Amino acid sequence: MPDQPSHAVRLVDVAKHLGLDKSTVSLALRDDARIHETTKARVREAAQALGYVRDPLLSALSRRRSRHGSPDYRGVVAFLHHKSYEGPNWFPMTYFHGANHRGSELGYQVEMFDSAALEKPEQITGILKARGVVGVILPSLHSAEIVPPLDFDSFTTVSCNFGEFSPAVPYARANHFAGVRMAFDYLYALGHRRIGFAPLRHLYPLEDDFLRSGAAWFEQFERLKRKDRVPLLHAKFKDFQAHLAWYFRYKPEAVICSLDIMRGTLVEAGVRIPEEVSYVSLSVSNHPQVTGVIDRGFDVGCSALELLDLELRSGRKGVRTNNFSLAIEPAWHEGKTATAPTGN
């Protein structure tokens, strides 16, 4: 028998224990077909061990929804995609899964449209209209080449994240400022003082580039003594020589990296993690062994769909003069790449 918890275990506690999104844990406990069987087994085992009991009011609400069937159909939502995003850390797919899940609950059919696959991109407005699309969800538009030639006045549009070339439409995003502060808090509590931050900027800046760098600057100057401040690494994602030059020049006790990119470079150079340097990533979704921040891309997608639903109900189309955003708070994942400095 597991020890009885001192407080009622919540769904978020199970998610934090496993390093998963709360939505993933919820779906797994409902035996949703979209969740892998291995993940379902892990979630059920952890829930039982932690003493999680589902709220009877929520269970009753779910049964009521089942009796009344699916929500009224509201139309097709286009999730625009560009092939340049594809790769091992393709965040828009996580956003899509979240939007698709929330859309099914609210009565929308969310479909992915690849704007790069069109022979004549300028036809995209007509294609979406012919498909009966009522709303559009954009990824963060980080370069001019992937901006769809869309007539925004014809659609209600929202975005996931915000890029240099994004239109002024409501958007959902991870709270990257809070994520950086969470990472500094964690390392500071372990006893680290010489904390190096590697934001690894995009070719064209996104909003999260400014938020991460701003939070790091705040932490460096408000919390750390002058002798402990490590200059930020100003380099591109794949400039591995610059990454190593920065590390060996300043020899920080701990490194915070915006993505899990530097870890492999450091290990290949003979740096032992966490024995020689603690390592924290600001995006650990695909790397459970790494300590760091879960940016909850699934929930960003869910929230983008909710923003779209709000805009559709208000009858708004086109870009806005009074734009707004919704920031999703990050979660922390306890991995194996950070430890207290030697001597603490």
Description of the molecule:
The chain is an alpha/beta fold and about 350 residues long. It folds into three domains: about 10-70, 434 Repressor (Amino-terminal Domain), CATH 1.10.260; about 75-175 and about 295-330, Rossmann fold; about 175-295, Response regulator (Rossmann fold, 3-Layer(aba) Sandwich), CATH 3.40.50.2300. The protein contains eleven helices and eleven strands. The chain has helices at about 10-20, 20-30, 35-50, 55-70, 90-105, 125-130, 175-190, 205-225, 240-250, 260-270, 295-315; strands at about 75-80, 110-115, 135-140, 155-160, 170-175, 195-200, 255, 280, 290-295, 325-330, 330-335. The strands form two sheets. Strands 2-1-3-4-5-10 form a six-stranded parallel β-sheet, sandwiched between helices. The chain has a five-stranded mixed β-sheet with strand order 6-7-8-9-11, sandwiched between helices. α10 links the parallel β7 and β8. The two termini are about 35 Å apart.
Oligomer: single chain
Q: Indicate how many domains the architecture comprises.
A: 3
- CATH architectural arrangement of the largest domain: 3-Layer(aba) Sandwich
The level-1 CATH class of the largest domain? Alpha Beta
Give the overall form: globular
List low-pLDDT spans.
Answer: 1-6, 63-69
Order of helices and strands: HHHHEHEHEEEHEHHEHEEHEE
Strand content: 15-25%
For the terminal residues, how far apart are their CA atoms?
35 Å
Report on the biggest sheet.
6 strands, parallel
Rg is 22 Å
Estimate the helix proportion, in percent: 25-40%
Report the CATH superfamily of the largest domain.
Response regulator
Give the overall pLDDT as a whole number.
82
Number of strands: 11
The largest sheet has its strands arranged as 2-1-3-4-5-10
Q: Helix/strand/pairing class, anyone? A: alpha/beta
Question: Helix count?
Answer: 11
CATH fold node name of the largest domain: Rossmann fold
